[in-house]
Structures
1.
Amino acid sequence: MTHYSPAELAAQLKTGLLSFPVTHFTPDLSFDEAGYREHLSWLSQYDVAGLFAAGGTGEGFSLTPAEIDKVVRTAVSEVNGRVPVIAPATGGTATAIEQAQAAEAAGADGVLLLPPYLTEAGQRGLSEHVSAVCRSTNLGVTVYSRANAILTDVTVAELADRNANLVCLKDGVGNIELMTRTYARVGDRLTYIGGLPTAETFALPLLQLGVSTYSSAIFNFVPEFALGFYADVVAQDRESVYRKLNEFVIPYLDIRDRMKGYAVSIVKAGLTAIGRSAGPVRPPLQDLTTEEVAQLTDLIGKIQ
């Protein structure tokens, strides 16, 4: 059973950094439950506002529905109410509804509604899709605006009016005008989450637009650095933010940008670099090369 009402979930998520843990795989690419539990146990030593299981960084797109359910149930069991656990819902409307209802049955505290798979759609269709998922569950819903499901400010406002349990908007676009229009129209009715790859890069400017928190992939392997960076953003300490961008984040991006899909692969490589391997990524992603892992290891060493 969930520990948070939708309103309580929205209030909680805006209080700190958000964790998007990787999903551990064995060499044969099956789910490594023991490794995943150990990872969550380690991360739980640190203060975060929420944990998103089987999200993008967690390779949710490569998991079967049964695997997603197992990952979510494992996270709920391991976290044991310390922070809210948010489960994914994706695919077409019928599939997303099934996943949202499975998340509620698994004891998750909220749902992250990702874009429908592949197909493009207009705003009216997207609005009906999001609303249908919201109606299917009592959990608080975070809608992820990105890729083939970018929501306009008008659509977000309509969705917020129609669905009391739509509590968060995760922005994967980074369009300053769109975010400004959305916050101006909707205000604090929603909690706004930064959701661009390596969200630290955009955290300071987006803070000015009402985006009070973000999903941190690097928290997986440099949690103290990630939390310190978040604290600098919240304090609007520009000097510290830009120093850390230059020291670590931008060189990290230089490695990440060498290959499509490395935004996920590099996180698992980071765990390998610190001696906490999460196993390989699943195809169609590919792992970093040995040379790139060595470069990342050197980079991590400079901030520890």
2.
Amino acid sequence: MSRDTRWKALLELLAAKGTLDVEDAAHRLGVSPATIRRDFDTLAERRMLVRTRGGALPHGVGYDLPLRHKSARRAEEKQRIAHAVAALVRPGEALGLTGGTTTTAVAEALAARPDLADGEGQRLTVVTNALNIAYALTARPRFKTVLTGGVARPHSYELTGPLADGVLGQITLDTAVLGVGAFDAAEGAATADEAEAGVNRLLCARARRVVVAADSSKLGARAFARICPAEAVDILVTDTGADPEALADLRERDIDIRTV
């Protein structure tokens, strides 16, 4: 197993389990404990995990792991959420999609809808600042894909900065779908990076309807950079594992909540 493959496996295990000790990781990957200790030390230096006595923890709340390492987290829930969000989109809409694993799954679900993919229906316009989403949808002839421009962030494949702001200031959207790092009734929708939050905030401002696509682990959590207040969100699509108290607090903000 190569070093990069081993690191990817370690981060995916850590994302799935929430904590990882040296002996367990060594057993799972079939390598020595000394190798795992070195891996943990190096990944801690790169701020991709937190080293503990005998093991490792994920980095602090809202830390921005590379997108490829987030994909293993709650994959089944994200797929259910993605299909429910895609079902909300009407042919002919102008749709905004932020970056993230859940919104990437939404894009894939949209691409699989026969009424959007065939040549009979109205064309769907998708505006995104995510390079991977634009790449996936460009091959679909019935999708008009608009990329915002900006400076690419290697962790998330998202474009940020004044170039992105300039494009978004000139358009109008029917629906904006937000992938978030946290969603709380008091603090609103938030993410780990302030530049991404700024682009996402503008997407919300340009849309008639705002949909947050977030698995239950994001609810009641907090992240560094605020995107918008909870009151700016029209619909939340989440999974059935969501905390009832968190959902009740969000309903008080007049948010239409869909659990799948």
3.
Amino acid sequence: MRIDLHTHSTASDGTDTPAELVRNAAAAGLDVVALTDHDTSRGYAEAVAALPAGLTLVTGAELSCRLDGVGLHMLAYLFDPDEPELLSERELVRDDRVPRAQGMVTKLQDLGVPVTWERVARIAGDGSVGRPHVAEALVELGVVGSVSDAFTPDWLADGGRAYVGKHELDPFDAIRLVKAAGGVAVFAHPAAAKRGQVVPESAIADLAAAGLDGIETDHMDHEPATRARLRGLAADLGLLATGSSDYHGSRKTCVLGEFTTDPEVYGEITRRATGAFPVPGAGGTTA
């Protein structure tokens, strides 16, 4: 089985619609794909309706968190999307995204960049607007060469010249909320230092003690030695070790199935979840 547990659609900051994403996942030879848009479950219905036969969909979300001033992301799998407390927190994060992005546009304008809110909103479309959409606007304007080039201290990285914060969950609260909603919590790309400051491994141990289920060890932003170290850390802490592409369509260079999760680990995730269940494909729509 080929299992990719971290992808994004146009419901947040990917470029594939949810329907396109599941069809592309099947075409890439995946058996299981997780839809983990940022702080939202809005893509679920479309993905399920288009789900090809032979592909299983894991519903999820990537939750925005911050610990001691350091941003981090928590992958939540198979939780009840209607559970009130977690839903309320996700809505707070989502509702803060527009003023945050507008604030980044203002900062960029103050730096002499001729970016407009209208341009960013057009790029975001119906998705939850975020830094990647602002970054793509900078690419369109020729300010940077790629989306990843915008995530530097000069521009949009945490603490960068045009950075603006947003409402984010405490990761310990995130774990508690995900568990209360019947879900499974996995720390996304915990050592992705290319993106900015990362939390120390001692914090991962604290999160494990608080009920964290796993860490995403195999990811494009982890070098081979880092992946090996994280797998050892996961074993020491009794955590599941997952692998995923973090696919965003054409917005990033990663491809579906670039990194995958061991079937036994996937099986354990499904065993632990009580809020929702994987959805097997029934043929889907072709439109």
4.
Amino acid sequence: MSRDARWKALLGLLVERGRLDVEEAAAELAVSPATIRRDFDGLAEQQMLVRTRGGAVVHGVSYELPLRYKTARRAPEKERIARAVADLVAPGETVGLTGGTTTTEVARALAVRADLAAGSPALTVVTNALNIAGELAVRPQFKIVVTGGVARPSSYELVGPLADGVLGQITLDVAVLGVVALDVRDGAAAHDEAEAAVNRLLCERAERVVVAADSSKLGRRAFARICATGAVDTLVTDAAADEGAVRRFEEAGVRVLAV
């Protein structure tokens, strides 16, 4: 197993469990404790975890993995969610996509839809995510609009007043949000306030708002609010979503698709 693969696996385990010790991690990954110690030290130097005596813990409520280390987490669920979200988009519409692993999968699902293989344009995509723009720019039938702004290295998203300037001049048929938390009372949220501000503006410029969030995000709260639950038209999540949570979102007026 390569170092990058080990780091992805270790960070995924940390997010799920909150704490790992060296011996436990070594057994999980079938490597030596010395290798895990070096990995923990390297991740600590990059401020991705906090070293403890004999192990490591996550940073706490503000902990955020860089996007490149989150891609493998809950991948099957995200792919199902992405296909369902893509099916909600009609040919010729203007779609806003925020950054994140789930919205990246939505972009990929849109790219392979047979009914979007041609058009002038088949779809207009507005995004502040550099990786999404890069993947879709090679599709000549898609019109890609990228906001300005300053890039966040952890998520590849453009944020700040330059992004606000572009979004303030356009309208969207649908905004697709990737979130780190969605709570009935507190709404959709992100870790970073600048990211949340751009996402909030995408919502405001859209006729309808779709949140793409796997079940681990439901009922959670995060630092920076994107929008109230009442601003969300549709939530697309996975079939493992708690029935009580789904019912509360539906009672709040949100259409819920569990796939």
